[in-house]
Design brief:
Strand content: 15-25%
CATH class of the largest domain: Alpha Beta
Helix content: 25-40%
CATH superfamily of the largest domain: Type I PLP-dependent aspartate aminotransferase-like (Major domain)
Structural class: alpha/beta
Strand order of the largest sheet: 4-12-11-10-7-5-6
Number of strands: 16
Bound molecules: pyridoxal-5'-phosphate
Largest sheet: 7 strands, mixed
Distance between the termini: 42 Å
CATH topology of the largest domain: Aspartate Aminotransferase, domain 2
Order of helices and strands: HEEEHHHEHEHHEHEEEHEEEHHHEEEHEH
Radius of gyration: 22 Å
CATH architecture of the largest domain: 3-Layer(aba) Sandwich
Length: 453
């Protein structure tokens, strides 16, 4: 029988892990954890140790692990048809899912374009927006505006609209040129305004840019309410509302990248609902299948779709497709996920839990190095700083977040950090008692690490 140590040895021999510097495992006790099963909010390693999946396995899991109804949906579909191409063919789960998504998103959404993951959903949105303008006789509208510190995926198109150096800097010679505006991050406000006491003055920079360059701008792409990969940086819904108005005023499309936020994370199905706006195009992935299986969708309106609808010879077709576009297994799981969300009133049940999380996060205020404690819906984050008064961050090389992660693993929670930010994005089915359990582990881990340092 292969032992745990042998599995891990083989892992490090053959598997190249994402976002991972493998040298960190050299001569250390710390190695990738070998996970064998999951149940609810917990995952279990091969030795039976239990961990709260506090980051929902990279923000994908919404209904917990090992959900019988989702397992059955997957198995039932596998016994019918596991895959069929989606050009000139279709299948019931793809149709049912598209109908459900359009109805959930409401007017004016009407069309769903499937792909495989968040990055591809963003690629589709960018190409769709550019081709829309091209076919409207405005090929000069070729720029995309995005925020500093934004993250939209790791493929080169999505990296182009991204703004985080570690993902982008090396590839600058390869990516296409985009326009950037400063992200409206309230804790470190670019205009030094006090949180909750401003008139969203940071939007003025966007208007200036739109005024100067609207003839050349195809779309602005945003992560709604929370810039996840930047460290759960949060901003008010009012910003999105104002952005929608500006996009209308200057004839610029609004692309809403809901890859991380949709399906309940913010307390609603889609984050744009908080701002009472509708984007022109929005992207979903991750939680669409409750985190079971890769699937993504780029959802848009007839206004966009009609610019592609014409005789074959006009070459207005959207020539974009992936082998696994609209995979039946994934669509069947996604349909079941949406049925569960509806029947079990997952969104409604979240509201008291969100209040509970908000209240419970206050425990971190007593920690000397918890600089900012922020929350949006079911997402909480603690930004650790060297000095609370000056907001001086810990240096990158100090790996404070990583130290807390290791400490929390010993205590039974997966708190994989982003730099100095420890965040909570648990499956939505977490209970109040489990929130207590998670926050206690986080509190003790942060305290231990920051006191020692
Ligand atoms: C806002 C946003 N967009 C796109 C992506 C990319 O998604 P994927 O990793 O599924 O390609 C992510 C991933 O975290 C994301 O947070």
């Amino acid at each position: 029988m292969t032992t745990k140590e042998e599995w891990i040895e083989k892992d490090l021999k053959y598997v190249w892990h994402p976002d991972t510097q493998h040298k960190q495992y050299e001569g250390k006790n710390y190695k990738p954890a070998l996970i064998e099963k999951g149940e609810g909010i917990y995952v279990y390693d091969i030795d039976g140790n239990k961990y709260i999946d506090a980051v929902s396995s990279w923000w994908v899991n919404t209904l917990g692990h090992n959900v019988k109804r989702l397992n059955n949906a997957l198995l039932n579909q596998a016994e019918k048809i596991e895959h069929i191409l989606l050009a000139d063919f279709t299948h019931k789960p793809a149709v049912e899912l598209a109908e459900r998504l359009v109805k959930l998103a409401g007017n004016p959404f009407s069309k769903v374009f499937y792909s495989d993951d968040g990055s591809t959903a963003v690629e589709v949105a960018l190409k769709m927006a550019y081709q829309y303008w091209y076919q409207k006789g405005k090929p000069e509208k070729k720029y995309f505006v995005s925020m500093t510190e934004s993250y939209h995926g790791d493929t080169l198109g999505s990296v182009s609209v991204g703004g985080i150096d570690i993902y982008k800097k090396i590839f600058n010679p390869l990516v296409f040129e985009t326009l950037k505006v400063k992200a409206p991050f309230c804790y470190r406000c670019p205009l030094n305004c006090k949180q909750g006491q401003c008139n969203i003055e940071c939007i003025n920079e966007v208007e200036e840019l739109f005024k100067q360059k609207n003839n050349e701008i195809a779309a602005m792409i945003v992560e709604p309410l929370v810039q996840g990969a930047a460290g759960m940086r949060m901003y008010p819904a009012e910003y999105l509302k104002k952005l929608r108005t500006l996009c209308d005023k200057y004839d610029i499309l609004l692309i809403d990248d809901e890859v991380a936020m949709a399906f309940g994370r913010t307390g609603k199905y889609f984050a744009f609902e908080h701002a009472q706006i509708k984007p022109d195009i929005f992207c979903v992935a991750k939680g669409i299948t409750a985190g079971y299986i890769p699937l993504a969708a780029t959802i848009t309106t007839d206004k966009i779709y009609n610019a592609f609808y014409d005789d074959f010879s006009t070459l207005k077709t959207f020539y974009h497709g992936h082998s696994f576009t609209g995979n039946p297994l994934a669509c069947a799981v996604a349909v079941e996920n949406l049925k569960i969300m509806e029947e079990e009133k997952i969104i409604e049940k979240l509201q008291p839990k969100i209040e509970y999380l908000k209240k419970s996060l206050k425990i971190f205020e007593s920690l000397e190095h918890a600089g900012d404690i922020r929350q949006t819906g079911m997402i909480g984050a603690v930004e650790m700083v060297k000095d609370k008064k000056t907001k001086e961050p810990y240096a990158f090389e100090e790996r404070m977040g990583h130290r807390v992660f290791l400490e929390a693993m010993k205590r039974g929670a997966i708190l994989r950090p982003i730099g100095n930010v420890i965040y909570f994005m648990p499956p939505l089915i977490i209970t109040e008692a489990q929130i207590d359990e998670l926050l206690k582990i986080a509190y003790d881990s942060i305290k231990t690490v920051t006191e020692k340092f």
